[in-house]
Amino acid sequence: VSLTPEDRGFFADAGALPREDYVFLTYRFECVGDPDAAAAHLCREMTTAQWRRVGRDEDFRVRHGAKVTGLRVLDESRRSRMDPPWYPGEKHTLCEVAIATPHVNFGARIPNLLTAVCGEGAFHSPQINAIKWVDVSFPSGWLAEFDGPRHGVAGIRERLGIADRPIFFGVVKPNVGLPPEDFAELAYQAWLGGLDVPKDDEMLADTAYSPLARRAELLGGLRQRAEDATGERKWFLLNITDEVDRLCAHHDLAERHGLGAVMVNGLAVGLSAVRMLRRHASLPVVAHFDLMAPLSRIPHFGIAASVLTTLQRLAGFDAIILPGFGPRMQSPDAEVTANARACLDPLGKLRPALPVPGGSDWAGSLPGMLARLGTTDFGMVPGRGVFGHPDGPRAGALSLREAWQAVQAGIPLAEYAREHPALAAAIRAFGGPPAA
Amino acid sequence: VSLTPEDRGFFADAGALPREDYVFLTYRFECVGDPDAAAAHLCREMTTAQWRRVGRDEDFRVRHGAKVTGLRVLDESRRSRMDPPWYPGEKHTLCEVAIATPHVNFGARIPNLLTAVCGEGAFHSPQINAIKWVDVSFPSGWLAEFDGPRHGVAGIRERLGIADRPIFFGVVKPNVGLPPEDFAELAYQAWLGGLDVPKDDEMLADTAYSPLARRAELLGGLRQRAEDATGERKWFLLNITDEVDRLCAHHDLAERHGLGAVMVNGLAVGLSAVRMLRRHASLPVVAHFDLMAPLSRIPHFGIAASVLTTLQRLAGFDAIILPGFGPRMQSPDAEVTANARACLDPLGKLRPALPVPGGSDWAGSLPGMLARLGTTDFGMVPGRGVFGHPDGPRAGALSLREAWQAVQAGIPLAEYAREHPALAAAIRAFGGPPAA
Predict the structure, then answer these.
(1) Neighbours of B374 (CB within 10 A)
(2) What whole-number distance in Å separates Cα of residue A245 and Cα of residue B144?
(3) Nearest chain A CA: its distance from B410 CA (Å)
(4) Contact between residue B121 and residue A383 where contact means Cβ atoms under 8 Å apart
(5) In this predicted model, what pLDDT tens digit does every residue of B208-243 receive, in sequence order?
(6) Rounded to whole angstroms, how far apart are CA atoms A126 and A140?
(7) Mean pLDDT, chain A, as a whole number?
(8) A197 and which of A169, A217, A293, B69 could share a cystine (Cβ 3.0–4.6 Å)?
(9) d(CA A85, CA A300)
């Protein structure tokens, strides 16, 4: 398969295109045959597959066709990374391609963007047996159609009254099975110990054994007591993940009980539903990352986690819980920092979202997170590290605050722990002496 | 890593479990260490990660824990199928595991099911570096909470007045760029030639250059004319894919103009939004398969296409467009037939959905589809095979009907084409003599 004269219509000089009319995409793909021809076919499949009527002299490619603006071969003549190979015996080439696609085809709509950019066109294109959408850049006019986070990092900080440190979330554990009363008591203990935002596990939403309304009521009362007792502002992060048509009512329940924020498993509910909720919601909305891994984990296939993070911010999440650092979550550290950047880096006029990398963290994870992220604009979200602490969730929460005090004072955690038993017990339970 | 006494609580004899309380799942996974321990951890991560409070004598596993009910090693001591390997240098074992998970944890809700079954728990479980959800079986009481297809195969047949043959859909091409007037004229020609349901491409929805309202209006008028001219019932399948909060209004537009059916790119919009639309919609709702490939194509990772098909039927789709047979769509034939079975096989009291395998089909594809599917309960959905026909869409549509006549008469297509010029031209344009 090689480049035909017809394919030439799917190439352009990026500088010559009207930038406001295009979404700029980067894909990595593995193909057989001529990579330029594969890239041209990809553009064709993504847009105007048949670009003129039979017997007519017309060309829809100029206005409606995606265009290759750059192609780089990363690795030539390797065997397929797909097992079994779809094109057995052929030479396979790994490429990175820059494509500009005109948004006149899909508008400022999330489902139509997904269809155009990672739908049938991209994933069923001839010659290409593996493809990953790895980067995206949107024009400012298109971005302006999106509200993005209502509160963002600054809004969360202002509402919580936390100016300059990471936000301490924590997943109440046991995550599944506890009656609401026992569950709320654990959250209360964690608030007293210094947790800002105890939260529902992503698997605990509105269930018969723990109805959302009952949790919201109990936690609303205890939250107020915890604020009174500590003099700090406190939230409970209620997991309102449910069928689309219940999201707004669940949000209102959380608001009525003064819980402070709601969580939605964004990809499981659908990002368009999140955008709908965002228009309705007064509370900050927090994402959990279910379904990110099946779409993003394969290195040469699917959709990059950082792109999914950008889409979540676009949909309006104020904070985004992400697979965190270390081997536990099977996410390379570079991917975690890329996701954090996708939350915080400029994106038109959309507010930054708070990145919350999570996965088996505890007090000892804090110095490493600070070093890797290079900012205090993040949240951490231990589960066992707070609620599995040998002295209970109050001590577990306290261990986080003590870790932060140590960091602020420039004292190694192991040293600070000598005078701080909660941190000392955390170190004994969850780690050796931390690296920092 | 090997099995601990604690892990034993995540095993059960399937026969001893109350079947109505559990969703039964099959996964294939690749793990390091003891596969039984990996399966136990998977169950734990999917449900009650920490199954008792610190210092309490309690056990949430009995009621809330997922349980391994069977494990089969498929391939021992092979190197990882993941590139790069997450656990380099270790022995990798490929397994198939049967797991029963209690739906008390998530209820009859699609987003919560997805979270519990293919969320963080399944895709971030220790020891397991690749996992695919390959099969599912729901208890009847849980299924009864879902409406499923409102019309299904029988309802579509009744409304179209087509008792015993495949339904002929067709994607109007050029798919992107045509003004609504020209677009509608192509659909009209195809109706006259014998197409039942011309349709929007999945990439064409509500756009500035072709507003949905304008297409609906034009096609509504022409549809009536086509019915009058042919004496057959005709639909136009309007692609109402859009942000969630516009779906119902778009459906009503299609209904107002008598178009007959609407299409939604199900995974791009989110299956929960489809369930919402299903409750509102009077018209049959048809799925398009965008985002299925990134979730399902990797053999040992993600979610099987047939599972995604079952979920689409659960959400309420009356017909499901699927990647079709042959090399073009990079879907193995066995996967296409499995998807068709997921549409048609018993699923509680839910109606069957019409499978519509698609991808570069034309008149000559019909005998092969009939043979592979073993039923006439399917739709075919050519694009170029109708709208790229050298004599235009009317002849393109006619070529499908002629192919069906040939099949009914038991005459090979090439022979039948001698007296049928539309079929003859299709054979010259799109294929050699078909295999049948």
Answers:
(1) 11
(2) 19
(3) 32
(4) no
(5) 999 999 999 999 999 999 999 999 999 999 999 999
(6) 33
(7) 95
(8) A169
(9) 14
Residue of B nearest to A202 (CA): B115
Measured between beta carbons, the chain A residues lying within 8 angstroms of B111 are 241-243, 265, 268-270
CA B264/CA B258 separation, integer angstroms: 17
Determine the Cα–Cα distance for residues A310 and A313; give it in Å rounded to an integer.
5
Indicate yes or no: CB of B270 within 8 angstroms of CB of A272: yes
Instruction: Look at residue A54 and tell me whether its pLDDT is greater than 90.
Output: no
Provide the token pair at A335: 């991917």
* Dist CA A153 CA A271 (whole Å): 20
Per-residue burial over A172-206, b if 16 or more Cβ lie within 10 Å, else e, is bbbbbbbebebbbbbbbbbbbbbbbbbbbbbbbbb
Q: What is the DSSP letter of A41?
A: H
Q: What angle do CA A329, A332, A337 make, to 5 degrees?
A: 100
Which of A265, A295, A359 is the closest to B295 by Cβ?
A: A295
pLDDT given at position A432: 60
Which position has the higher pLDDT, B405 or B4? B405
What is the structure's pLDDT at A326?
87
Q: Which two tokens stand for residue B34?
A: 């003891």
Give the per-residue pLDDT at A434: 43
Query: Could you give the C-alpha distances from B36 to B42, B67, B90, B95, B133, in angstroms and in order?
Result: 10, 11, 17, 10, 17
> What is the ipTM for the molecules in this complex?
0.96
> Does the structure show a pLDDT above 60 at B435?
no
Q: Under an 8 A CB cutoff, do A54 and B388 touch?
A: yes
What is the separation of C-alpha A8 from the centre of its chain, rounded to a whole number of angstroms?
Answer: 37
Task: Enter the DSSP assignment of B11.
Answer: B
| The two structure tokens encoding residue B80 | 């990882």
User: What is the C-alpha to C-alpha distance for residues B251 and B150, in angstroms, rounded to an integer?
Assistant: 14
Q: Which pTM value belongs to this model?
A: 0.97
CA distance A29 to chain B (A): 13
Q: Is the pLDDT of residue A21 over 50?
A: yes
**B10, burial (CB in 10 Å: exposed 0-12, middle 13-18, buried 19+):** buried
- The whole-angstrom distance between residue A307's C-alpha and the CA centroid of its chain comes to 8
